[in-house]
């Protein structure tokens, strides 16, 4: 099977059968590190909502984990009178839906973006969502490009080059790469991004995508697996490890541009959080709980500093036609 089919099947089982987050799980996301992360998302929404004329809107999150980000963001938004008419979560895992229901009992669950209500503008948050979607991988061989396939060899799974030439699937800027080079594409992520963009164009609102990734096109193998907070072989234990790949934000931007949605410049997570005021929030929390000041500073540094998550994770915003420019971004749009 293709890498994309393998990733879809493995992650489908993985997320449906467990809560993968936290110290007892396989990985930790930014909202689980600190309340400040979700609060900055809430501040970002409240600011844009206010400058857009304070319309009725729905809060939407794609792959919301345990609901921690939504809980923190909605609390911060409420301080500014920014209260959604509905909370809509796109989640397919029964285990995670149950965890989300505990934190957000008023939320409605949906299996896909197309099922979201169409009665109001949407503020959509996608934090570490796109990285878990299936990617296609292509490898350069002596006479061109082949899709990377997964093959069983003596009970062991391993990647191999497929038999069909697929040069047209490779971005033109990357086709002359040397033999052995791997190039990734993410059509599933692009399709979901385009569906979200259609909703923004039709209903109004904005979307925030936060993930580890890059501005493409770029070559390289980014497929990775996490188990008990350690990197492991992505092909060794299918369905029992978290499979992810770096997100090409240029692909997401192109999908949104195609339907007329405005796209921000790409920012690093550290830059974006600082522009939104995470350092001021750190001071406020530290004054309120001086015994936790060192702990809180450590949380902030993990989110912001380049040696931690600050540079690897990127942030991009998408806004409906006619809506104000979102806060936290500088420079030219992607």
Would you write up a description of this structure?
This protein has 10 helices and 16 strands. It has 334 residues and is of the alpha/beta class. The chain has 2 domains: 15-133 and 187-215 and 240-319, 3-Layer(aba) Sandwich (Rossmann fold), CATH 3.40.50; 137-174, no CATH class. Strands 1, 2, 3, 4, 9, 13, 14, 15 and 16 form a 9-stranded mixed sheet that branches. Strands 7-6-5-8 form a 4-stranded antiparallel sheet. Strands 11-10-12 form a 3-stranded antiparallel sheet. Helix 4 links the parallel strand 1 (58-62) and strand 2.
Secondary structural class:
alpha/beta
| Total domains | 2
CATH class of the largest domain: Alpha Beta
State the total count of DSSP E strands: 16
- Kindly estimate the percentage of residues that lie in beta strands according to DSSP: 15-25%
Largest sheet: 9 strands, mixed
Q: How far do the termini sit from each other? A: 34 Å
Query: Which regions are unreliable across 5 or more consecutive residues at pLDDT < 50?
Result: none
- Percentage of helical residues? 25-40%
CATH architecture of the largest domain: 3-Layer(aba) Sandwich
The whole-angstrom Rg is 20 Å
Tally of alpha and pi helices: 10
Output mean pLDDT: 94
Element order: H for helix, E for strand: HHHEHEHEEEEEEHEEEEEHEEHHHE
Can you tag this structure with a few keywords?
Rossmann fold, 2 domains, 10 helices
């Amino acid at each position: 099977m293709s890498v994309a089919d393998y990733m879809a099947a493995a992650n489908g089982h993985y997320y449906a059968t467990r809560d993968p987050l936290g110290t007892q799980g396989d990985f930790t996301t930014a909202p689980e590190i600190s309340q400040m992360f979700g609060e900055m998302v809430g501040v970002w929404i409240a600011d844009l909502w206010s400058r857009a004329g304070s319309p009725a809107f729905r809060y939407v999150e794609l792959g919301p984990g345990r609901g921690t980000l939504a809980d923190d963001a909605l609390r911060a938004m409420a301080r500014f009178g920014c209260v959604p008419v509905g909370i809509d979560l796109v989640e397919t895992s029964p285990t995670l839906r149950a965890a989300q229901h505990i934190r957000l009992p008023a939320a409605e669950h949906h299996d896909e973006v197309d099922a979201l209500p169409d009665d109001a503008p949407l503020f959509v948050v996608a934090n570490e969502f796109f990285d878990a979607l299936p990617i296609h991988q292509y490898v350069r061989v002596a006479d061109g490009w082949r899709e990377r396939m997964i093959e069983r060899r003596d009970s062991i799974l391993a990647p191999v080059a497929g038999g069909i030439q697929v040069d047209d699937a490779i971005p033109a800027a990357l086709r002359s790469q040397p033999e052995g080079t791997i190039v990734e594409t993410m059509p599933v992520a692009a399709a979901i991004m385009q569906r979200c963009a259609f909703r923004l164009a039709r209903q109004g609102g904005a979307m925030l995508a936060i993930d580890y990734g890059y501005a493409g096109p770029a070559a390289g193998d980014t497929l990775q697996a996490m188990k008990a907070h350690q990197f492991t072989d992505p092909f060794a234990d299918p369905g029992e490890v978290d499979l992810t790949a770096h997100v090409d934000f240029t692909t997401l931007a192109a999908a949104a541009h195609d339907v007329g949605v405005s796209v921000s410049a790409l920012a690093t997570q550290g830059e974006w959080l600082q522009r939104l005021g995470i350092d001021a929030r750190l001071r406020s929390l530290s004054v309120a709980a001086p015994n936790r000041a060192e702990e809180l500073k450590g949380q902030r540094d993990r989110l912001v500093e380049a040696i931690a998550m600050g540079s690897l994770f990127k942030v991009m915003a998408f806004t409906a036609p006619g809506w104000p420019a979102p806060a936290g971004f500088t420079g030219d749009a992607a």
